[in-house]
Design a protein that fits this description.
about 300 residues, alpha/beta, Rossmann fold, 2 domains, four-stranded parallel β-sheet, globular, binds zinc ion
């Protein structure tokens, strides 16, 4: 891990020199250029929910490019040289939070640009050291706050479109609020107060639901799990009569299958939405369709009565 960060820093140092050279010709004016051939502003985004919210608020007034592609686990992402050049040239960069996109501070430092607006969409309390949960979008109410920040970023980058951004954001906020109500109704009357999840991505969502998550691994999908921790989870599942393990797609399910066998449990899919799978993208899934499936998986795992 340490080695990877060092390599990344070196990469940025090399690339920033290239970017500075290539950007020299285009930074003559104080005002952002409005003469581009495409009608919208160029926005660079990171993980799926950030991309989706930005597209919904910007609609045809923005050209959104996501650095992270479908089917690729988001915690693994490392920017390629071409990504660094895109970061230098974007009018607006929107990312979730530096505690999720751990590469972002270095990448932005390496591509300082006077006319670029940068938005960190999620408000994450990092006062607790490395224990902050950056997966804020999984609570629709926290997502509302993210949408407002994205709207502010778009408005700063393209003030003449403020009215349209505001209208689009309001529409999205109505849908997110309705989703939150739907969750609270569906999870109102449940047998259990705990869920077992493949990684601790659901702190914001479980806070909303008033339940506790038991993680097979940590805050990042790739953190390692020791044998002692596995035994503890199996014990806890038996004590609490938990019979489901909520496993995410795009992550190795071997551990979940081992624990499921030992604890006599079944595996259900719960989607952290960090990245869609290529199949989900092809099928036209979005934040809302996946969240509605998540609600049903949670209702089953928590033993909630139908509402
Ligand atoms: Zn995660």
């Amino acid at each position: 891990m340490r080695l990877r960060i060092k390599n990344t820093r070196l990469l940025f140092a090399v690339i920033s020199a290239v970017v500075l050279l290539s950007a020299c010709g285009s930074e003559g004016s104080d005002e952002p250029s409005t003469q581009d051939s495409l009608p919208g502003i160029d926005v660079l985004t990171t993980i799926y929910p950030i991309t989706y919210f930005t597209e919904r608020v910007g609609r045809d007034l923005v050209n959104v490019t996501s650095l992270m592609k479908p089917g690729v686990p988001a915690h693994d992402f490392d920017p390629a040289p071409s990504d660094i050049i895109d970061l230098a040239e974007a009018s607006l960069v929107v990312y979730n939070h530096a505690s999720f996109e751990v590469w972002v501070d270095d990448a932005l430092d390496a591509t300082v640009s006077g006319s670029r607006t940068v938005i960190e969409a999620a408000d994450i309390d990092t006062s607790d050291g490395g224990n902050a949960d950056p997966h804020a979008w999984l609570s629709p109410l926290k997502a509302v706050a993210m949408v407002q920040k994205i709207k502010n970023g778009l408005t700063a980058a393209a003030p003449t479109n403020a009215g349209a951004f505001s209208e689009n954001a309001d529409e999205l906020v109505v849908e997110l609020t309705a989703l939150s109500d739907q969750i609270m109704t569906r999870i109102a009357n449940c047998r259990h107060n705990e869920i077992v999840v493949s990684h601790l991505a659901y702190g914001h969502l479980t806070e909303l639901l008033g339940v506790r998550q038991i993680g097979l691994s940590g805050l990042s999908a790739e953190s390692e799990t020791g044998a002692k921790r596995v035994a503890e989870v199996i014990d806890e599942m038996r004590q609490l009569n938990l019979i489901y393990i909520l496993q995410e797609p795009l992550s190795n399910s071997d551990l979940a299958m081992t624990v499921a066998r030992e604890a006599d449990a079944e595996i259900l899919e719960l989607h952290p939405l960090e990245a869609l799978t290529t199949d989900e993208q092809r099928a036209g899934d979005d934040y809302f369709t996946v969240m509605r499936r998540n609600i049903e998986a949670l209702a089953l795992a928590l033993g909630c009565t139908a509402s």
